[in-house]
Amino acid sequence: MTDNFGSSAVSKCSGCGIQLQSEQPDKPGFVPEQALNRNPIICQRCFRIKNYNEASSVAVDQDEFLRLLSEIGSKDALVIHIVDIFDFEGSLISGLQRFVGSNPVLLAVNKIDLLPKVTNWNKVRNWVQKQAKENGLKVADVVLCSAKQNHGFDRLLDSVGELREGRDVYVVGATNVGKSTLINRLIRDYSDLEQELTVSRYPGTTLDMVNIPLDDGRFIIDTPGIVYPSRYSEIVSRKDLAAIMPDRPLKPAVYQLNEEQTLFFGGMGRFDFVQGERQSFTCFINNALKIHRTKLERADELYADHAGELLSPPSKEDLEDMPEWTRHEFRIRKGSHMDVFISGLGWIKVNSDAGAVIAVHVPKGIKVLLRPSLI
């Protein structure tokens, strides 16, 4: 078999054992071509951990990730599951409970700096606990944190100290949730990397995990980020990612709508108020994305004529690479307080007690659902 280096021998990382490749920096086993003459050769992720006390993120598809998770249940471990509060349902690993067995799960909820500053954090924490339970996940603790602002990490480390009890620590999460920042903080606080980076791989697993030695002889196990195609962040171009992923606190945009009015979120999505009394809707969308209001009867024509121009991003060129839109209709009961959640794009809060029929149009495959209001 020939590998990416053009030889018949299979080159593997001397740090973690993964097969090396020099073509995809965001995939396991990447090593820059200029590093191929080193002896021994280690992958970029091991190199950064060993030399800079810093982990970098790699990603694998769902099937590969589930194979990695299948080993955790048989280990004595603490599992840290890191999720993105902006994309909570999109970044929560469904079915995690059946893989972790009786091992405790610490849910680290990152990017809380994106929520409005007047947010009631106790209510957010309670909301997270309820939503985790609804998704079948039993958590030992919930910690709200911000990797960007370095908020909540002392609380997170305290919780790790209370729950670890000498166990290995597995860190799991989807792509773009801030997993590497968390790993790096754990490395600084728990690991002495003056020693050589050594990895004892568990039998039967692939070698896409990096085991970072701790001072007590146990390991932090850095797992690759799982790729969920149901998230907007996985289907847009790199240049459009900044338009949908906020980097500062959201400024809620409130719209008073009559029935049969429509909101476009750039060219990324569409929200129709199909039926109901005049009422307000609050959009928690990246403020860099322009919102356009129109009549429902004109919405199809507006999109056909102006997608990729007035309604952008995405650009006309990037539109060609995105799936066709599909329509999701929801009936919201009177007196309920609900969000219409669009994975990776944000959510729309229905403020009225009168009830409503609404519809959302997004590319096929993007997760859209109703949930109890976060805020």
Automatic annotation (TrEMBL):
> One Pfam family this chain carries?
YqeH-like_C
**InterPro entries in the cross-refs:** G_CP_dom (IPR030378), GTP-bd (IPR006073), GTP-bd_ribosome_bgen_YqeH (IPR019988), Mito_lipid_metab_GTPase (IPR050896), NOA1/YqeH-like_C (IPR048422), P-loop_NTPase (IPR027417)
The domain of life for this entry's organism is: Bacteria
Q: Where are the transmembrane segments?
A: none
Q: Where is the CP-type G domain?
A: 66-229
Q: Which PANTHER family match?
A: GENETIC INTERACTOR OF PROHIBITINS 3, MITOCHONDRIAL
Stated name of the protein: Ribosome biogenesis GTPase YqeH
Please give the organism: Paenibacillus sediminis
